[in-house]
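Thread: quick sanity check before group meeting

JM: Hey all, I'm pulling together slides for Thursday and realized we never actually wrote out the predicted structure for the chain we discussed last week. Dropping the sequence here so it's in one place. If anyone has concerns about the input, flag it before I start.
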Amino acid sequence: MAERKIFAGPRLRRIRRELDLTQTAMAEGLGISPSYLNLIERNQRPLTVQLLVKLAAVYKVEPDALQGDAGGVGPLREVFSDPLLAGEIPGEQELSELAEAAPNAAAGVVKLYRAYREQAKRLSDLAELLAREGHETALSSARLPMDEVRDVLEARPFHFPGIEAAVEAFYAALAPGEELETRLKEWLRKTHGIVVRSLPVHVMPTLRRRYDRHSLRLFLSDRLSPFDQLREVAMETALMAFPEAIDAVLAGLPLTSGEARRLARFELARYAAHALIMPLSTFQPAAERARYDIDVLRARFRVSYEQAATRLVSLQRPASSPGGAGPQFFLMEIDSAGNVLRRAGAQGFPRAAFGGQCPKLNLHAAFSQPGQVLAEAVTLPDGATFLTVSRTLEGPQAAFHERPRRTALMLGCPLTEAAATVYGEALSRSLEIGPACRLCERQGCLSRAEPPMTRPLGLDEMAAGLSVFDFQ
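JM (edit): ok, ran it. Output follows.
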């Protein structure tokens, strides 16, 4: 049977030094030459089973102390996986050698790295705090272009009068009637020769839209809902119909790079698309009549919940404008991991007053009740109160083998303005229920499952109510 060889030179050297022995003294006790012990300590010769037995007998060294483990390699691997050091270590062997040869030094490196990460996190938090108060920081220059765009748009009112005016003029000339998407496609075809086509998923597996400048065709993925397809058509129309208005707003944004300006232009085109689908002149009074009920508005304008909620945030106007200023809505969207995807506000997202990072917000609870609208009043430690309305959103249609995209959107406003909304009623009024459908005479109940025993059914060929069990 072949004897097992163990290369543990650095650990043997450490044990020898702890015993305060020279190489000559330890070699004499083991019955080997000092030069051979030197080769063992440099991992040029193995520790055989016979030597392990002698070490245990002469110096009371347990074999486990020489065999060691990889416990010190894991933290070092974390250190050198940092992008700053990713190219410094060629492989796992060198990390193992460092952990074995100088464990105390390795532990010091790990401790120093963790302190560096903690300080970086504190600086990041400090920079965010200063940014909320309008102070520029040196850290902002290291952020990605998308981060820069988000910071700029989140810090200002989500309302662009120049784009709104251009949309209103274009919409009035378009005279779309009830079929906006048809009129927009017709305008793109007649004015610019652009034809809109929907393509199946296998043709556009990774794209939601693609505009081919050579063939003048706008391709939309079948993954998109009808609402999202309409928005894509409206975005293309906005970019073609009033680029000057979008560029004028873009020129006024304090962006530092061409890439940031390109991304901001896309966000402004999305804003213009929402304004085109839900023109301010009709959406504003409709929102006031519906008391800002998002579900009523989405049905009225044939848009998605997300589109209607986003448009509500952009309604903020000066109090002197026609119709006055509505509730100061703001919104935040996150994914199931808590990553913030976007923020916007009628006066800028209220980071200083609201924050938005509390795990108790109904924004997080929405994931456990998909599709349900959760309205709640919240109070911050300083006494500030807000109305929050949260609901999950479904992303593009996923295939059977794909995991669907689901996010949560929270719409909020100061609680003092909640009375202007339908959601404010839920905070002070109880839910109207009955003992059972058979015994309940509430009319217009969307949840009715059976007709009441006390009333005859009100079947009418000329009119249909909200329930199949309408009664007289």
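AS: nice. DSSP finds 19 helices and eight strands in the chain. The longest strand covers residues 385-394.
JM: adding both to the slides.
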